[in-house]
Specification:
- The complex is a heterodimer of chains A (88) and B (418).
- Chain A is mainly β and 88 residues long.
- Chain A has a single domain, classed as Folate-binding superfamily (Folate-binding fold, 2-Layer Sandwich), CATH 3.30.2270.
- Helix content of chain A is 9%, strand content 36%.
- Chain A has a four-stranded antiparallel sheet with strand order 3-4-5-6, with no helix packed on it. A two-stranded antiparallel sheet of chain A has the order 1-2.
- The radius of gyration of chain A is 14 Å and the shape is globular.
- The two termini of chain A are 25 Å apart.
- In chain B, the strands form three sheets. In chain B, strands 1, 2, 8, 9, 10, 11, 17 and 18 form an eight-stranded mixed sheet that branches.
- Chain B has eleven helices and 18 strands.
- The chains are: A mainly beta (88), B alpha/beta (418).
- At the A-B interface, strand 3 and helix 1 of A face helix 8, strand 12 and strand 15 of B.
């Protein structure tokens, strides 16, 4: 069982949360002409790092806020949690 | 190579089975090879075997970081099936089925292929309609499919929960009678032994540290046991694909996730088929030793851990008990995990890359085991001929940017949900 510190509620069990994927992927700017390559990178391509990984989680059975977690994908150690607008 | 037969078994009994030839050798890596396959799992070993057998390319090395068959080929739930709706997936996996049927004879190694049939249960009218559609697609591709109603299912698996007050009543199911299981370790060992006998070097405990790419062309690899040159290199490393891709400055449409499986204590034979729960993600079969072999959902977040987390196991087994209530009486014997190369449309990638001489085989998601022979066969063809075969033409890498996805389940890019 992972224990994740929601930035709004504190430490809770993993079962309260839903995963939201790689938080470093940036959506191309709205109303801007973008190439197929940019769209491909945003929709499909992932670094899938082994080691420190910045990812979104959703406190779906709690406060329902989205936030970021920096976690090791091999050991599952959680280093830091951030509000969605905060940067590492 | 010493043939495995009843006569050799008797002959070797006289010397107390002390004089059997080794099944494969433990060579020191040579300075260069025609082809290097990275990854000594089922797919890598099969690729090397078919390179030697079908294309007469025997100056081949398999480079394996750990030991052969120690990854997903030894960790899966051994299910073999071709019950796909899309033409490309159906054709590819039915070709695989043909190779499975003759594998024990071809490899002179008993892989215990057991075509016992798979049943996907349906729990609503809508699901029955979807299965009828899938079954029809399968039959159009020459794959056997039978739609069964509730009474027919009850005759086959009377131990399932057929009571009236359940949350997910069984409406019926789709069966592929020719699907089944095989002994997964034997598949790796059988391919390894034959490949070795034809001259392939199986190099274990050898980690790939980097690649030599000059002018857009692959020249060789750097390993923990020295540099090795090669004209062509095939990547066959499943959940570790993204780690090697990073060393090649490639970003791929895959993510690595963890999948668990477990077996119960052994019980007397009671389940003759592979059965899947249709209202969640759970599948079950009974091994020849009597253990119930079970699996289900991914752990749900990027992971290279190769070991699982309990909440997912609990969730999966809850589904199992909803389908087969008797499971609640059994003790779990073992649980384990493997890391899956989850592709963004749920279908694999077997293709050339933008680097000349570098070939890619990945994206197998949950279902790599059943495709082992076809994957090896088509990947060997792609490497030997430097062009894709029509069987793996749709498993190309650029289908994502072009929009030609092969999304069998229609789940999209959230790989951890699928």
């Amino acid at each position: 069982m992972l224990y994740i510190k929601c930035p709004y509620c504190g430490i809770r069990a993993q079962t309260e949360f839903a995963y939201g994927g790689d938080a470093t992927v940036k959506r191309p700017e709205l109303n801007k002409e973008i190439t197929d390559k940019e769209w491909d990178e945003f929709v499909y391509l992932r670094k899938s790092l082994r080691g420190k990984h910045l990812e979104f989680w959703h406190h779906i059975s709690g406060c329902r806020q989205w936030f970021k977690v920096q976690r090791d994908t091999a050991t599952h150690e959680i280093f830091k949690t951030l509000k969605p607008h905060e940067e590492l | 190579m010493q043939k495995y037969s009843v006569f050799n078994l008797i002959k070797n009994a006289f010397s107390g089975h002390q004089n059997w030839e080794v099944a494969w050798k433990d060579p020191t890596p040579k300075k260069s090879y025609d082809v290097i396959i990275i990854g000594g799992g089922g797919h890598g070993l099969a690729t090397a075997y078919y390179l030697a057998k079908e294309h007469n390319i025997t100056n081949v090395a398999i480079i394996e970081k750990g030991w052969i068959g120690g990854g997903n080929v030894g960790r899966n739930t051994t299910i073999i099936r071709s019950n796909f709706m899309h033409d490309a997936n159906g054709r590819f996996n039915e070709f695989s089925m043909d190779l499975w049927r003759n594998m024990s004879q071809e490899l002179n190694f008993n892989v215990m292929f057991s075509p016992r049939g798979i049943i996907n249960l349906a729990h609503s009218d809508a699901q029955m309609n979807a299965y009828a559609r899938r079954g029809n697609s399968m039959r159009l591709n020459g794959i056997d499919a039978v739609l069964l109603n509730r009474e027919e299912i009850k005759k086959i698996i009377p131990m399932a929960d057929f009571s009236d007050d359940v949350r997910f009543p069984i409406f019926g199911g789709l069966m592929q009678p020719s699907a089944g299981t095989a002994r997964h370790d034997a598949v790796a060992w059988g391919y390894a032994r034959q490949a070795d006998s034809m001259g392939v070097d199986i190099i274990q405990n050898c980690e790939v540290l980097g690649f030599d790419v000059v002018g857009g062309k692959i020249k060789g690899i750097r390993t923990s046991r020295g540099d090795i040159k090669a004209k062509k290199i095939g990547l066959c490393v499943a959940g570790s694909t993204s780690i090697l891709a990073e060393k090649l400055n490639m970003t791929l449409p895959i993510e690595t996730h963890l999948l668990q499986a477990c077996v119960s204590e052994p019980v007397k034979p009671l389940l003759d088929h592979v059965v899947t729960f249709g209202a969640g993600h759970f599948y079950c079969s009974q091994s020849d030793k009597g253990e119930m072999v079970m699996g289900g959902d991914l752990d749900g977040y990027n992971s290279y851990a190769q070991r699982g987390n309990l909440p997912t196991l609990q969730h999966v087994l809850t589904e199992g008990i909803a389908m087969f209530p008797f499971l609640s009486k059994l003790k779990m014997l073992r649980t384990w995990g493997g890391i899956m190369d989850m592709s963004m449309d749920g279908s694999p990638i077997i293709d050339k890359t933008h680097i000349e001489g570098l070939y890619l085989n990945c994206g197998w998601c949950y279902g790599g085991f059943k495709s082992t022979p076809a994957s090896g066969w088509t990947f060997a063809h792609t490497i030997a001929q430097d062009k894709v075969h029509k069987l793996n033409a749709d498993y190309n890498l650029n289908r994502f940017s072009k929009g030609y996805l092969l999304d069998e389940k229609g789940l999209g890019t959230k790989t951890w949900i699928s």
